[in-house]
Amino acid sequence: MSQLFIGIMSGSSLDGVDVALTEFCDNQCKVIATHFLPYSADIKKILLTLHTPIINELENSVLAGNALALIYAGAVNTLLVENNFSPKQITAIGCHGQTIRHCPQKTDGVGYTIQIGNHALLSERTNITVIGDFRSRDIAAGGQGAPLVPAFHQALFGSVRKNRAIINIGGIANITYLSKSGLDDAGDVIGFDSGPGNMLLDSWIKLKRDKDYDLNGQWAATGKVTQKVPAGLPDENASVSWEYYKYMDLEIISEEILEYEIGKSTTCFIALKEYITIDAGNQAKMDEYNELILDILQSGSGCFFTAFLFYSFY
Fold first, then answer.
1. What is the rounded distance in angstroms from the CA atom of residue 312 to the CA atom of residue 288?
2. pLDDT digits (tens, 9 = 90+) for 159-183
């Protein structure tokens, strides 16, 4: 029996909302239709301000969540109308919401993650059941707040013949390793956030060229690769753990990444992102399985950043 679901995602790049209508049948997923609704300059500005402490931020975050719910609902309703589907045909909407703070294991050892977007209002405006709050249980269990990705990768890409690694480069990058025995033993499914992804590159070109993103990495390709560790970030002898930098939010990026020595350059820093993304601990994990991996699957908008992909894999 097949079921129809709608997935809503608005990532850390703050470019807009992606909506996908999908069909699930016999553990297989088929994308039927998609729709993208860009954020207005006003809502993007509001969301950016919520990444750092401000006056009256509690009320502002709730009102922003209401605004997001209306944007999400508009995107969903447009998708349905354009593809001749009715709300009654949809089993549920999966809505991640917009992350405004993400600090797992911070301060008290548990940390927190905050996604806004009023799910009740979204359900009212679409007449569809809404499922959300995907991260908090994983944070409570000591995770990094992204429990669904490895399970989804296993369900869709798990193989009894090949070991596979899936690398997703979105605003934040993550890696999943799937052993061919992982279909029978969940202990062989390994997944973790590996560090900042496109959000660093987007922030850099915004600072230097006042552009929202570097199309196909064209500007980055004109730069020179450097392995220099920027000032303000920990080296191998530092007391600050790289664990904290694996899931840095926009507040950390603006204050501790973009204002460093390499910032005097006018070109983008491909190597910096690679240096942070593959830290020592996670590199050891991947090295252990390196000879076993037969397939590497790439996903996320980072797929289109050809300059970075060339540097990463060749």
1. 18
2. 878 788 888 877 777 788 888 765 5
pLDDT computed for residue 98 by the predictor = 94
Phi then psi for residue 185, to 5 deg, are -130, 105
Token pair in block for residue 205:
């070109």
pTM here?
0.75
Q: What is the mean pLDDT of the chain?
A: 75
Q: Where are the beta strands (DSSP E) in the chain?
A: 3-9, 16-25, 28-38, 92-95, 98-104, 111-116, 130-131, 163-169, 172-178, 189-196, 293-299
Q: What is the CA radius of gyration of the chain?
A: 20
The count of other CB atoms within 10 Å of the CB of residue 228 is: 12
Distances (CA, A) of 119 to 51, 92, 98, 297: 20, 12, 12, 32
For 159, phi then psi, to 5°, come to: -135, 145
**Dist CA 105 CA 143 (whole Å):** 8
Distance, CA of 149 to CA of 9 (rounded, Å) = 13
Write the DSSP string, 229-251: PPTTS--TT-SS-HHHHHT--HH
**Position 153, amino acid:** H
Just give the CATH number of 3-140. 3.30.420.40
Q: Looking at the chain, which residues constitute the CATH 3.30.420.40 domain(s)?
A: 3-140, 148-313
Quote the tokens at residue 80. 């349905």
Q: Which residues contact 305 (CB under 8 A, 6 or more apart)?
A: 169, 198, 201, 214, 216, 217, 220
Q: Determine the length of the chain.
A: 314
Q: Report the CATH superfamily, name and number, of domain 148-313.
A: ATPase, nucleotide binding domain (3.30.420.40)
pLDDT in tens, 214-266: 777 777 777 766 555 444 444 444 433 444 444 445 545 544 455 543 443 43
Smallest CA-to-CA distance from 110 within 148, 146, 143 is with 143
- Distance between CA atoms of residues 128 and 36, nearest Å: 19
CB 125 within 8 A of CB 37: no
